[in-house]
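User: My instructor asked us to take a sequence, write out its structure as tokens, and then describe one feature of it. I'm not sure where to start. Here is the sequence I was given:
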Amino acid sequence: MQRSHRFRRTLAAVALVATMVAGTAGWVSADAQAPVTGPPPGSAAWRGEGLIDPAASTPRQVAAFFRGLSAERRAELVRRHPLVVGNLDGAPVALRYAANRAAVAADGRFGRLLGPGRQILAFDPRGRGQVAEVYGDLERARHVAVIVPGSDIDAGTYDRRRDPYGTPSGMARSLRDETGAGTAVVAWAGYTTPVGVGVDAATGGLAEAGADRLARFADGLAAVGAPAPAVFCHSYGSVVCGLAAPRLAAADIVAFASPGMRVDSAAELRTSARVWAAKDPTDWVGRVPNVEVLGLGHGADPADARFGARRVEARGARGHTGYFVPGTDSLRAFAAIAEGRMP
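Assistant: Let's start with the prediction itself. The structure tokens for your sequence are:
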């Protein structure tokens, strides 16, 4: 009996990968991705000046460090170490904007991020590049939302014009337009995402590394006085959120288009945040078997009533990336969640 059960679970794991391939028009995986981890680039030179250790310091300690500096010293650190200041969770928001503007200009590959009014809260050029951008006034916002994307998102694709509502930038703009001036939305492409639909997308290695970075990012928001965010987790991003949940300083966690969160129920997320889930019936992710076997798959469907998440209606959404399209029930609900209006 046990052998038969194991065999069925193994078949389910094989079916998982096969379904992911069929559901997205073929295997489009590149080489396995090496996650970007650790402190910001340039940290060795920063530490060489006897400054606070980016690897060992909490965001609250970082915030306290900057509070003790004069305006002149802060500006000097931006000039000398833009990649550290710009990626240091807990550093003042305006200082990070200035540092990242300098870092993007020096890098030369992502000039569009230098456009008027763009507020780049993080920019890490390592690997495929990572970026976080703020829509709204983060320093004065009454409500904050964070968008966590899934596969194929990096500094070069996070704001691509085709399929705009499938990118964290497009999702953030749409949510910001649906809310009000009191809400700031962060498009957070701050982890190494899978490329295509392959082994990386079917396993949790990249999500584990991303969860560490997401939890620290949220701690950084708290350290500068921002309210606890509503975190919207798309596709593979919901795997990241599921692994981060026990230590994620969030008011709400919203999984949508999710292949699973690596747990069997909302209770197993061990979070005080409210947990929500949405799935459009035309979304191909609904054909992915909700199993976790031999390291493949991400577990139970968060949109299944048995999971225990609060249900978000997705009428009007279409496909895997239609949840933030204006006029959809899902976008209206997401805005209500972000503003704390959803009971």
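For the description part of your assignment, you could build on this observation: The chain has a mean pLDDT of 91. Try explaining in your own words what that tells you about the chain.
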